[in-house]
Amino acid sequence: MDITDVILRQHDEQRRMFAMLEEWPRDDREGLAAVWKRLEILLEVHAEAEERYFYPELLRLGTGGADAESVDEEVEDAVKDHNKIRDAVRRVADAETGSDEWWTAVVDANVHNSDHMGEEERQDLADFRQRASLELRHEIAVQFLRYEAQRWAEGITPRDKDPEDYVEGEKTDEPSEVAQQAARDAEEAATTGPVSSEPSLKASEDADED
Ligand SMILES: [Fe+2]
Ligand SMILES: [Fe+2]
Question: Which residues does the annotated region (Disordered) include (predicted)?
């Protein structure tokens, strides 16, 4: 697994769900509410997981990708964008499903999210691919997906963060726990072969018969 690939795929799912809403029958308010609820959870859990697992590592290793001035600016921008998305999502929740106010907030969420994903892909993911080992990208993907899997059903209570405080709080030259684990995995793989001591899983004999 690779965190940069996991994030890209989830962006694709977000784009597809906004597109789905655009052509959903406007009078099916129950359906609109259900589709939006799923997208809301996807947006909020995704942003929080990035802030917990991806951006701290990018701050340690990044140098500012593409048109970003620096990694600090890259990350501050991302947190600022996440706050804008969270704000639009809250406005959707406060409006009556299917009303003009509701659609305006949905479109605002789409605009903020599209702008953000473009920048995140062009700067942050590209920067990380160039700077982080495959082992680290794998380790972060596992943590990220674990956090999300535990929250997909219910969602989370979104929390805005001050972008400068976030960067200041997370910025350190010390390797994180996950980076140290990735380094051990890489070393072990280089000297002894497979990273995991667990055997590959096998199908049952019944499944095998098909
Ligand atoms: Fe993202
Ligand atoms: Fe993001």
Answer: 156-210
